């Protein structure tokens, strides 16, 4: 939802991702395109700015934190693309995304403390997909289809050896 910018004994001040002065490095979960999402004054949407007209981002794409800059960990859901429009005067695409959190109705937050990765390499795209999907399933299962809704699973490969039933004694 944002970044803690001030703390007191019983309260904290959070700069929300929708704030006009806030920008957040994100990536599209479907194809790993990395972009900057900017707040536009705590309206309902975030704006993805300065994208060429041929950028492969679609309505419904899930946006997650990219981890660039080290301020936010990789793979946390940020929003879902709600609008993609071409600005013909400047040859840019104007993309808006709806935040996954109800930013106007927050009462409690879970704080994430920065982990020291000791100079570890950034996560691979596969690791980001795995982590993001795990977090999405925990936070918003309605975005991803249930595993059984994704179609029939492939049958187990045949080994060429017929299975023999066990005798009644289990031996």
From TrEMBL:
Region (Disordered): 148-171
Pfam families per record: MreC
Superkingdom of origin: Bacteria
GO biological process, one term: regulation of cell shape
Domain Rod shape-determining protein MreC beta-barrel core: 1-113
GO cellular component: plasma membrane
InterPro entries xrefs: Cell/Rod_MreC_2, MreC, MreC_beta-barrel_core
PANTHER family xrefs: CELL SHAPE-DETERMINING PROTEIN MREC (PTHR34138)
The protein's name in its UniProt record: Rod shape-determining protein MreC
Annotated organism of origin: Klebsiella michiganensis
Organism classification: Bacteria, Pseudomonadati, Pseudomonadota, Gammaproteobacteria, Enterobacterales
